[in-house]
Design goal:
Elements: E1 2-3, E2 6-7, E3 23-28, E4 40-44, E5 54-58, H1 66-78, H2 90-109, E6 113-117, H3 127-146, H4 149-180, H5 184-193
Antiparallel strand pairs: 1-2, 3-4, 5-6
Protein name: Endonuclease/exonuclease/phosphatase domain-containing protein
Organism: Trichogramma kaykai
């Protein structure tokens, strides 16, 4: 607290936190400012929320049989009412009914599938491992094209090496992240962030 020509310490300005383990440190101005008040900044550690999942709907049209599609269209449109009579907006409502009939036909031969795009970045995959994965993919293409025993063996060797390197790098990354957590609560935060523990389960501490 700032008084004229002198300083006095008070407990007027307080920070209240519900978890002292998440508190890191604070800074304070050397001299009072802002109408005689100190500027105090508190650093608080918060876990990073997981990336939201993106979902999209698609149809696999490449495997659709044309004859089956024709039959589905005929059956669907035969039962679709596109009669412009007795409609207040015959063009718009008729077009909507026709569109619904076409969609029903495609639903019959190529139903929609919901896919999830996972954008979770895997930070333990280094540049060297990515280069090795590309080499493995090239070896796979070469073995698939030639069918030669030596090419197949080369691909299997690279596949096993990539798997071993990935598992080792992931274990080291998880171990480092968990060990760097300062208390058991933050360790469980890391477990959930890494997908090792369910986010619905509470910390046992």
């Amino acid at each position: 607290m700032f008084l004229e020509n002198r300083m006095a310490h008070t407990w007027i300005d307080l920070f209240l936190v519900n978890d002292s383990d998440s508190y890191s440190h604070y800074t304070k101005t050397n001299s009072p400012s802002f109408a005689g008040h100190d500027l105090i900044a508190l650093k608080y550690k918060l876990p990073k929320p997981p990336n939201p999942l993106r979902m999209f709907t698609s149809r696999h049209l490449e495997s659709v049989n044309v004859d089956s599609l024709h039959r589905a269209l005929r059956d669907s449109l035969d039962t679709t009412n596109i009669d412009p009579r007795n409609r207040s907006d015959p063009i718009d409502s008729g077009a909507a009914s026709f569109s619904d009939g076409v969609i029903r036909a495609f639903d019959a031969v190529a139903p929609c599938h919901v896919s999830t795009v996972r954008t979770h970045h895997k930070p333990w995959i280094s540049i060297d491992i990515r280069d090795l994965m590309r080499e493995r993919d090239r070896a796979y293409s070469r073995a698939k094209g030639s069918r030669r025993r030596e090419d197949v063996d080369a691909f299997k060797r690279l596949r096993n090496e990539v798997k071993t390197r990935l598992n080792q790098a992931k274990r080291e990354y998880i171990s480092e992240r968990v060990e760097s957590a300062q208390n058991s609560r933050l360790k469980w935060v890391e477990f959930r962030r890494l997908g090792i523990a369910s986010s619905a389960l509470p910390s046992p501490t």
